[in-house]
Amino acid sequence: MIPFEQRLKILHLVSEAVASGSRRASACTFLGLTVRSLQRWVDVPVGAAPTCRADARPLRLQQPTNRFSDVERATLLAAANEPEFGALLPSQIVPRLADAGRYLGS
Questions:
Q1: SS3 state at 35
Q2: Which DSSP category does 32 fall into?
Q3: Is residue 90 classed as helix, strand or coil in its secondary structure?
């Protein structure tokens, strides 16, 4: 996801390139975008100049209900950082802890 400030800069660069005689598709390709991405960023009301639109996706404000508490997370990190588990993946640590009778989470 490209931040809003960078979008404004990219739109400015593309409009300069087009004003200088370049094609919009060539300028977008040079910057590593598609023309369609540029079109999605620009909101053009009827009879108005194009303006850059901010990202319209909603932000996630709620926390998952099954999230670890701070104490559970600290316990998990302490177990994962023990010397015997230092070089293992979480998918290898969980079964070894289960074999030892310790269930901390998965």
A1: helix
A2: T
A3: helix
The three-class DSSP label of residue 42 is: strand
User: What token pair was written down for 46?
Assistant: 């009827």
> How far apart, in whole angstroms, are the C-alpha atoms of residue 41 and residue 51?
8
- Please give the Cα distance from 76 to 83 (Å, whole number): 14
**54-70: pLDDT as tens digits:** 666 666 778 888 888 99
- In terms of Cβ atoms closer than 10 Å to its own Cβ (0-12, 13-18, 19+), residue 14 is buried
Instruction: Kindly report the backbone phi and psi dihedral angles of residue 43, in degrees, each rounded to the nearest multiple of 5, phi listed first.
Output: -110, 115
What whole-number distance in Å separates Cα of residue 105 and Cα of residue 101? 12
